[in-house]
């Protein structure tokens, strides 16, 4: 299931609810970490139910100003600070549907973010406990897999 | 559309702990063995290291399938050569003695799990798969802190025994051990069976076992597009001269058997060890990314749970860190200060597995609802983990229980969890240990396969994976799957050898 044009237009808004590009810390833009491409790979690999769940999660987050804030607006229509506040509320919400599916969106953002070597270095995750802070070098990780040689099935066919 | 025809003495469906072990034993005994695997053969040097690439290539449906019921939770399953052993932490536990006795007394499996014979098989597997206790220098920050907590609280913790004696401590078990130290089936029993003459077809999805006149004649299914696991590019029919051995997991095995027309107890008695995690933030760097992925554990079988230190890569750890926006981003710069431990619950609940009405031959619907006792035990485990985090020196602890403060800063706050009645949906479970959906036993009314793991009603059809376990174990099942399979495959090899000689 490919994303619709409307769903694609949500991606920058959803990303900005979790990651403010101008904030200190681990900060970047959705274009820099290729969020749309990453979501495409994830939804292609996910089950029908999983892909549907991600879409519903994205929709719930887009409607969170109404659902959680009591305002007649979508996430696009509120400030960055409000977006973050609503997203933070959604991922700990008592209702499993809201919490679980918005958490699924957060997981995909985390996966996209730390696929990027610079972001990973900024997180200090790979820093040895005795190493100086901020000294980590970006580690280059292979991006989404290419084709893998298969055992000679296709030749056998 | 392409079509593939093939024939072998033994056709083995699946290459995880069960399938690979069956292939290793039967091929070593000189039989003609053909392994079928739905996923790819991911060679270790080519396996993606990032989680998106790793999960999309090795995990079934990106781990996005969930149970159905009051508390839906994701089921983690691999889809690649090696099955779950190619993505797990290689934790090795022998079949607990109380479980062995229960299976002997109540299920008639005495011969299969006879103490001495089973012990001999465990010994061989442990030797072949380089099983050893995790060395102190490989505990890593996450495991070392758990050891410290156990020391402070007097808990019976111990370093985990794994099939990775040559582990270099890169904490990348999930993405495929970079040094091939972990002896997952894709680097051990599958190549060994192939060296003994076994063959392997990857990207083959079994739709059903072909049964004629009460005998399994072979299997048929679809050839899968390497770039799109749900798209078929052809079909295949493979004939089995001696037997079909289904080792496709406690979810896919009953789906295949039911699609083949088997009923009765097939798909019933689904059991699991669902788990959930607690995280802590420490003042000094922890270094979660160092050491093995899972290096320390606290077995509490008498309380129906097991606690484990569990390293997550930053891609997944980040989602567990509370918040969104600038406060989250600030926390993300200190990812080396976090530790994560999980409680795995030996749940009493029993569910069922059915083929999905929609979707292809492998798609399943899993109905499962934890009982009140299961939820209480989960809360007990979460509380204990929170106390352990504080005992190890955590400044903040994240219990991950909905409707309860998401950040605790003092151990006294943990007690308040006691008054919190955990309801379905309050914690985020995950499950990877799955059991019971084609359980073994003497009584056909209570079981799907006989004690020798042959289906009650069908000649030449065997099940050799955790589906045959009548109960869950309370410990990691890989070693028990391999040992039971070894016993059954050895017996089958001898029976067939005698039959050939007699003929």
Characterize the structure shown:
The complex is a heterodimer of chains A (157) and B (503). Helices cover 53% and strands 0% of the residues of chain A. Chain A is an all-alpha fold and 157 residues long. Chain A is globular and about 50 Å long. Chain B has 503 residues and is α+β, with helices and mostly antiparallel strands. Chain B has eleven helices and 19 strands. In chain B, strands 1, 2, 6, 7, 8, 9 and 19 form a seven-stranded mixed sheet that branches. A six-stranded antiparallel sheet of chain B has the order 4-12-13-14-11-17, with helices on one face. Chain B has a two-stranded antiparallel ribbon with strand order 3-5. In chain B, α4 (115-128) packs across α11 (478-502) and α5 (140-153) packs across α10. Classes of the chains: A mainly alpha (157), B alpha+beta (503). At the A-B interface, α2, α3, α5 and α6 of A face β1, α2, β9, α8 and α9 of B.
Number of strands of chain A: 0
The span between the termini of chain B is: 40 Å
- Mean pLDDT of chain B comes to 95
The low-confidence runs of chain B, each spanning 5 or more residues with pLDDT under 50, are none
N-to-C order of helices and strands of chain A: HHHHHHHH
Shape of chain B: globular
Low-confidence stretches of chain A: 138-157
Please outline the helices and strands:
The complex is a heterodimer of chains A (157) and B (503).
Chain A: H1 5-18, H2 35-45, H3 48-62, H4 64-67, H5 80-90, H6 96-113, H7 117-122, H8 153-156
Chain B: E1 2-13, H1 17-28, E2 33-36, H2 51-58, H3 97-107, H4 115-128, E3 132-133, H5 140-153, E4 158-159, E5 161-162, H6 189-195, E6 199-201, E7 204-212, E8 215-225, E9 228-246, H7 249-259, E10 271-272, E11 275-282, E12 296-300, E13 305-309, H8 314-320, H9 326-332, E14 338-345, E15 352-355, E16 364-367, H10 372-391, E17 394-398, E18 434-435, E19 461-463, H11 478-502
Parallel strand pairs in B: 1-2, 1-9, 2-6, 9-19
Antiparallel strand pairs in B: 3-5, 4-12, 7-8, 8-9, 10-18, 11-14, 11-17, 12-13, 13-14, 15-16
Helix pairs in contact in B: 1-6, 1-11, 4-11, 5-10
